[in-house]
Design brief:
Layout lengths: L6 E5 L2 E5 L3 H5 L11 E5 L7 H7 L6 E3 H14 L12 E3 L6 H10 L4 E3 H14 L10 H25 L16 H54 L5 H4 L23 E5 L2 E3 L2 E3 L3 H7 L6 E9 L4 E9 L12 E6 L4 E10 L5 H45 L19 H29 L5 H26 L4 H6 L3 E2 L7 H4 L3 E3 L19 H34 L1
Antiparallel strand pairs: 1-2, 3-4, 3-14, 5-6, 7-8, 7-12, 8-15, 9-11, 10-11, 10-13, 12-13
Length: 568
């Protein structure tokens, strides 16, 4: 037996088999299971008709396994004359494309111009339902029928005892309830109810058989058309991730549903937030699993609770942000989510997993974190001091009120200012000023010594200091960006991923669309600060650079002093 020649491609950091012909599908059972990208996936929460997925899930465990996919491929190839029609992904077939004689015979009955469609099959099943025999009207209301059945045995006992009493063989109790109808009327009522229920059961049985026959007749054709439409899409996201790694254009606002760009079956839609459209959005089936496994993806993730107000539906999604800055992405931020059908959902950020977005963003990350830390520290310190000041103020007020002389008493004399008590404070302030002057003198001498080595010395020093601060963050970001992996996110949703799905920088840039603005020609009439001239911008830029140099030199000097101090 000659091994089948597969087409291999490098997609997402892994070598994958591309399914691109009907013959590939016919030989799917010969493909080594180790070469499949996915080993199992759930039947719910995907952008494929769940009815189609359940047809493949023959053991009804809610998962699609490799062998189930292979069996479906074998059935399709045996049922069709040419499996190439599966690549079209249409819910219709030419009757001539159906190899199975029984299915083709059914298709010929409802085909139009030699073509049978999924809509035609479902219309035929619906027509059978219309043709079913109607159940006749009941002789009595449901309440009356229920009352008859409840007292049937009691009435029968009463009438039987009455007949026995007439023969002198029994005696009715004195408190026996007297029925409001004769025995004949009661018996006639029972006969009508029994006849009706027998006729109803017969009609319903006949209708059920008619529908079962219709379904047994049309279901195989319906299954064939459903899988003709959806099976190849499944393979492109199961055997390989062809759809996910396909070259794509802009896909905003659910336009993927219209076929303008290929999307993977696990991509739920587009999250529009902070002037960006994030197209890598997944449904979250289990929040606890996601929280545990998502950090391993190495991606910056935004979790959102989404609500579709017209229907009241809710769902949780996670979106990967792969472009832009993160300063405005906060928990509680509102956004808008568009599903694959183009419906808009109100979204609210509930959780953020912080990972690098770009090397440039990683460069500023230490300073951003330092700024956040300083801000939080200042805020906390200010709050503590405010509380302490308030406590002291209230304590002093209470003390003054307690020390206030009673009526008729002479208040204590005010103590004169004693400069001796503050001599220590003045001395401490003087020492601080002297130390600051010494530090500045030393700093200037160090700057002069560095400058004597050449004009390049100070800029080089600045660059070295910046690299020392930002370098580790940039290296770590570079390593993470190279290894961003979609697999942990899918694994958290119940997928069994057999090969990594890397999202590198270039590919990641295609998954998030950032707003692009033209050159502004009109000035804001309400702006407090007017647009700066070129000279003003250069002045601010030079001033910022000089300030940065000064700060860097101070840091360097402090580091140098510590090193000297430690070595002494």
């Amino acid at each position: 037996m000659v091994d089948y020649k597969w087409t291999y491609a490098s997609l997402g950091g892994a070598t994958r088999v591309k399914i691109q012909s009907g013959e590939d599908i016919r030989h799917l059972g010969e493909l080594d299971e180790k070469l499949w990208t996915v080993l199992s996936c759930p039947t719910v929460g995907l952008e494929i008709d769940e009815t189609s997925l359940k047809l493949i899930d023959t053991d009804n465990d809610g998962k699609l396994h490799v062998q189930e996919v292979i069996k479906t491929a074998d059935w399709l190839c045996a049922t069709l004359t040419n499996p190439d029609v599966l690549l079209e992904g249409e819910a219709q077939l030419k009757v001539a494309d159906i190899a199975d004689e029984s299915i083709r015979a059914v298709a010929e009955k409802i085909a139009t111009d030699g073509v049978v469609t999924l809509d035609a099959v479902r219309a035929a099943i619906g027509a059978v339902a219309v043709e079913t025999q109607a159940v006749p009207e009941a002789p009595y209301s449901g309440e009356v029928t229920a009352a008859y059945k409840a007292c049937k045995d009691a009435y029968a006992q009463y009438f039987a005892t009455a007949r026995m009493q007439a023969l002198g063989l029994a005696t009715l109790p004195a408190d026996a309830a007297v029925p409001g109808m004769t025995e004949e009327a009661f018996g006639e009522m029972g006969k009508k109810i029994a006849d009706y229920e027998a006729e109803k059961a017969a009609i319903e049985g006949a209708n059920a058989k008619l529908l079962a026959d219709a379904q047994s007749q049309y279901r195989p054709l319906e299954k064939l058309l459903l899988l003709t439409r959806d099976f190849y899409a499944l393979l492109r996201n199961y055997v390989s991730f062809q759809d996910f790694y396909a070259k794509r254009g802009k896909a905003l606002l659910g336009r993927a549903a219209k076929g303008e760009t290929p999307w993977a079956i696990f991509q739920a839609g587009t999250l529009v937030i902070d002037q960006r459209a994030c197209n890598l959005c997944l449904r979250v089936n289990d929040a606890a699993k996601h929280n545990a496994q998502a950090p391993a993806s190495g991606m910056f993730l935004v979790y959102c609770n989404c609500t579709h107000k017209p229907t009241g539906q809710t769902m949780q999604i996670v979106a990967a942000v792969t472009v832009g800055d993160i300063k405005n992405l906060k928990v509680g931020k509102n956004a808008l989510f568009y599903d694959r059908l183009g419906r808009d959902w109100d979204a609210e950020v509930t959780k953020i997993i912080d990972n690098p977005i770009s090397i440039g963003q990683a460069f500023w990350s230490p300073y951003r974190k330092l700024g956040d830390w300083i801000t939080n520290l200042i805020t906390k310190s200010a709050a503590e001091k405010e509380a302490k000041s308030f406590d002291n103020m209230t304590a002093n007020i209470q003390k003054d009120m307690a020390a206030k002389p009673a009526e008729g008493q002479t208040p204590d004399k005010v103590q004169p200012f004693d400069i001796a008590k503050f001599a220590g404070i003045f001395a401490a302030i003087g020492m601080a000023i002297g130390a600051l002057g010494t530090f500045l003198t030393s700093l200037l001498s160090e700057v002069g010594a560095i400058a004597d080595r050449g004009w390049w010395a100070i800029p080089t020093l600045i660059i070295c200091i910046l690299l020392a601060i930002s370098g580790p963050s940039m290296v770590l970001a570079w390593m993470k960006l190279r290894k961003r992996n979609l697999a942990p996110l899918l694994n958290a949703n119940g997928w069994a991923i057999n090969a990594d799905a890397i999202v590198n920088v270039l590919f990641g840039n295609t998954l998030t669309e950032q707003a692009q603005f033209p050159v502004l020609k009109l000035a804001d009439p309400h702006a407090k600060i007017k647009k700066l001239s070129k000279g003003g911008k250069w002045t601010i830029a030079i001033a910022a650079i000089l300030l940065g140099i000064a700060v860097a030199l101070v840091v360097f000097y402090c580091i140098g002093v510590r090193v000297v101090w430690c070595t002494c």
